[in-house]
Write a structure and sequence with these properties.
The protein is α/β, with parallel strands linked by helices. The protein has one domain: 3-Layer(aba) Sandwich (Rossmann fold), CATH 3.40.50. Helix content is 48%, strand content 20%. It contains five helices and five strands.
Length: 117
């Protein structure tokens, strides 16, 4: 599993949550470009993707490329409930959307659903 968030502390906290579920985090990224490179290199089954990232592209842009080239399932993580943001997410191949802050059970349920567990 890959974790993408431009805030280091959030990426680290999500990584700890994922590992607490007994899963492995193959890496973290802070920008869309880093996320795409990480996904191409590690080929994770699931990517936890923040919508707003540093740089010119956002998490939706990165998710579109990752889904098309790697096939990873993307769980979006966002603090935004803006209709325009949610509409962009819906146009992607979002496996799930979680709103910050994320509890352990919400994360577990989303990952289990995405992985078909």
């Amino acid at each position: 599993m890959a974790v993408v968030d431009d805030e280091y502390l959030i990426a680290a906290a999500l990584s700890v949550q994922v590992e607490g579920l007994g899963l492995t985090v193959c890496g973290t990224a802070a920008t869309a470009e880093e996320a795409i490179a990480l996904a191409r290199d590690q080929r994770p089954a699931v990517v936890l993707m923040d919508v707003r990232l540093g740089g010119d592209k956002d998490g939706v842009d990165a998710a579109l490329v990752i889904h098309a080239t790697v096939g990873s399932k993307v769980i979006f993580v966002t603090g935004s409930r803006e209709p325009a943001t949610l509409a962009r997410i819906e146009r992607d191949h979002a496996a799930a959307v979680l709103f910050k802050p994320i509890s352990d059970w919400q994360l577990r349920d989303a990952i289990e659903t995405v992985l078909g567990a």
